[in-house]
Design a protein that fits this description.
alpha+beta, two-stranded antiparallel sheet, two-stranded antiparallel ribbon, about 40% helix, globular
């Protein structure tokens, strides 16, 4: 396919990293009318956040926003999840299962307080810590079920970047939910601990254990 046949969205930004062309559909060079940078919750900047995994750079949206809420404008678009900010996707996952369904303001406050705790624990930008946690929790290999000759057996397959992102965010929220269930510790503290432990690739993290389990099963099915 020639370059003339490729049509990219107007907001798409392309740049070179180590001789590889990176396509970023969520630009991070947005500023206010006064030229001031846009900060998450009015505190945390986006411009110095680095996505170390080149496979996730196109799908991990870090578009600067004060309030991570897109009002569902991408839900009916093909691969629209890649245009939703990663922080909002974390908030949306906290609304599952049905007990917290629709309580987005509650989930928003949980993430806001959790990021404050992450900063107190690490002294780093919570957005960068969260991005590192996603990269560490994202599995690279999983299994699928193949039926051949009436016999079903598992086969190891590579994981697409969009599914890697989905699983990482899901496991981080599941770990926080299990930690806070039937426990006096609030969920924002559990979420902060889960994000920090995952960013440090610590085995105490629920997401890291789930990633290792999935990759171990896939390695045995090669």
């Amino acid at each position: 396919m020639s370059d003339r046949e490729i049509t990219l969205p107007k907001e798409t930004v392309t740049y070179q990293v180590g001789g590889v062309t990176i396509i970023e559909e969520c630009p991070r060079d947005l500023k206010t009318l006064d030229g001031e940078p846009i900060k998450l919750f009015g505190k945390w900047p986006f411009d110095n956040v680095v996505v170390k995994d080149p496979g996730l750079r196109r799908y991990l949206c870090l578009k600067p926003m004060y309030l991570p809420h897109t009002s569902g404008r991408y839900q009916k678009r093909k691969f629209g999840k890649a245009r939703i900010p990663a922080i909002e996707r974390l908030i949306n996952q906290l609304m599952h299962p049905g007990r917290n369904a629709g309580k987005k303001h509650k989930a928003y406050n949980i993430v806001k307080r959790a990021f404050d705790i992450v900063y107190l624990k690490t002294g780093q930008n919570p957005i960068q810590v969260f991005v590192d946690a996603i990269i560490n929790a994202a599995p690279r290999e999983e299994i699928t079920r193949v039926v051949y000759g009436g016999i079903a057996y598992p086969v190891s397959v590579d994981v697409s970047p969009l599914r890697r992102l989905d699983l990482a965010i899901r496991w981080i929220t599941e770990g926080a939910r299990q930690c806070s269930f039937n426990n006096p510790k609030p969920i924002e503290e559990c979420l902060a601990e889960e994000i920090v432990a995952t960013a440090q690739n610590d085995q105490k993290s629920y997401a890291v254990r789930k990633r290792d389990e999935m990759e171990r099963i896939a390695a045995s099915a090669r």
